[in-house]
User: Which sequence fits this backbone?
């Protein structure tokens, strides 16, 4: 059965409003989809029409899209998202489920699967798989940098644009370039207007580095705990820098199936969406 968009959903997760898009119907494969950094739930819009027999909740993760920003005394450490994903699954009454993650969402998906291995049945990662980590000796310098960055971005305003079109163009030529069509899809959910003009509504603090990074041994503990099936799709023209250390995860998760596909970092949102769907459909079901 082809997947149709059903409705907008809102969940109360630890006092935050988490907005979501619901696709498909109950009774089919339950999936939670997690978008990438500075994206939103619309990241999966072009993928959904090419999938069958699933029931999917695509989150606007905290600080993104239509969801609430975190309070001033909180931050955007990825392990906070882990608990929020589980809370959403609990509210959906999903004892086990599949995770579909892109980029930052893929990193968080891996952490969820390692923390709650009995709950994650399948893990699909699109051009993202493991967070950056440092040696313990660098922790103090990194924390200093993170505190400074978080204070700076907490007091900064978003960039304003004269019109909606210019906001789209800014994303087309951004840090991770997008096609115009892909940027337009994200803009419909991510660009807002106030008396000063048009702006991308993501929390500015998302641009700051995390306060604490896991060590290699800690990450190994997470990923060696994963018992689900794992599919990683890597883009040929990826924006993600790989290193020998990061690629050690492939030994930590021996059941991981790795596929390469022509395209850029947002290949699931761009021209390759149908090809991505064709690759992940057998894995989902």
Assistant:
């Amino acid at each position: 059965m082809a997947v149709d968009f059903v409705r907008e959903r809102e969940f109360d997760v630890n006092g935050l409003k988490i907005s979501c898009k619901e696709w498909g119907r109950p009774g089919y494969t339950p999936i939670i989809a997690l978008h990438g950094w500075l994206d939103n739930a619309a990241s999966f819009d072009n993928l959904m029409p090419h999938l069958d027999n699933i029931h999917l909740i695509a989150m606007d993760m905290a600080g993104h899209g239509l969801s609430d920003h975190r309070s001033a005394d909180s931050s955007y450490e990825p392990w906070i998202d882990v608990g929020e994903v589980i809370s959403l699954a609990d509210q959906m009454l999903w004892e086990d489920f599949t995770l579909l993650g892109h980029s930052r969402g893929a990193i968080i998906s891996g952490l969820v699967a390692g923390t709650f291995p009995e709950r994650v049945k399948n893990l699909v990662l699109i051009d993202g798989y493991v967070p950056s980590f440092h040696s313990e000796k660098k922790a103090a310098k990194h924390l200093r940098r993170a505190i400074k960055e978080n204070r700076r971005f907490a007091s900064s305003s978003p960039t304003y644009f004269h019109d909606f079109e210019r906001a789209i163009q800014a994303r087309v030529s951004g840090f991770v370039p997008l096609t115009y069509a892909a940027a337009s899809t994200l803009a419909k959910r991510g660009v807002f207007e106030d008396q000063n003009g048009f702006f991308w509504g993501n929390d500015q603090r998302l641009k700051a580095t995390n306060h604490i990074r896991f060590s290699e041994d800690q990450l190994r503990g997470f990923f060696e705990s994963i018992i689900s099936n794992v599919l990683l799709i890597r883009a040929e023209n990826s924006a993600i820098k790989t290193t020998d250390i990061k690629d050690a995860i492939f030994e930590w998760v021996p059941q991981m199936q790795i596929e390469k596909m022509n395209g850029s970092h947002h290949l699931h949102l761009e021209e390759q969406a149908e090809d991505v769907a064709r690759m992940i459909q057998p894995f989902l079901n």
User: Anything to note?
Assistant: The helical segments are 78-91, 104-115, 139-154, 164-172, 180-190, 216-224, 249-252, 273-284.
